[in-house]
Amino acid sequence: MVKTNVTDIKPPQFLGYLHSFRGLAILKIVLGHAVAAACIGDYGVFDVSYPVLMISEIFYHDSTIYFAVISGLLFTKILKPKGYSKFYKSKLINILLPYIFFTLVFTLITIKFKNTLSFEKGLGYYFSKAFMNLLFGKASFVLWYIPVLIFLYMVTPLLGFLQKTNQLTKVLFLIIMGIPLFVSRIPLVSDYSLKLETMIYFMGAYAVGMYLGADLEAKLGSLKKHKNVIMATSVLATVVLFYLYVNDIDMYGKVSLKETFFYIQKIGFSIIFIMMFKKLGEKQPNWMKPVARDSFSIYFMHGYILYASYPLFKFVFGTHTLGAFNVGLMATVLFIYTVILSMLVVRIFKLVFRKKSRMIVGA
Length: 363
What we know:
By secondary structure, the chain is an all-alpha fold.
């Protein structure tokens, strides 16, 4: 029996267009964070009133929704028929073990030992800090999504039950898909906490992916008939987001209007991008394949690389008279550098550890 792995280039049931979408998703995430880093470097503050950062935020914020949709789609289309044991084994190897590795490494790099009185106390402090970072995704600012993703994996059997059992459970499943319209993701905070609202928000996107993955071809065929409506809805959501940002409008009671329209926008764009890449058939961009293959490794590393590497390129900001130009130039440099360096690290680990590298860096 031939074993398959969804991250290989062409295994049975390989969805090339979804692979390309995954590559695009990670590039959007890295670019968005690169723009944010460049803005902080040029303006000294993260302020969405600056046009460059506002535009970036509107198109990049909540791009992790793309990953949630992809994960849900892959589960119902490819992984569910293999059984839950193989599903959880793959997540242990491809996600949890690399997450532990990067958490330990980033904690070691960033921890301050100068206040510890002895080696034993310093070691204890390190492991307690690493444990908290692991639990809450705090070793790097991008790792908050991994505990959320683990939560999604944990509730997958429940969602699968709701999706297929009877009419009542199917209605509940559809409600879960729509809950993020009314239950908003909570902004990231510096303390150690996991917000249930955030996990529910991404569970909705994950459920959308599961819905699409069940009879995928038929679903995409049906959605293709309404592609103009989907496009118009996504564009309208984007216009509304510009209005909300320009006028500094967000909360309506306990609901973030921005998060509501980000959800509409990103779900719409997910469908559009999937259909767009599917239309390419076997002519998927070759350069996108290695990026998609290493997407989770890039995600794990890019946050730390971006901000640790910023001083290396500080010469770009020799003057503040060309603010927007400086931000664009710095963001481009940081973006390219971060993606290439992340993939280079993956390559080195593959050369040294071969197939075992998947359990270390996720690729």
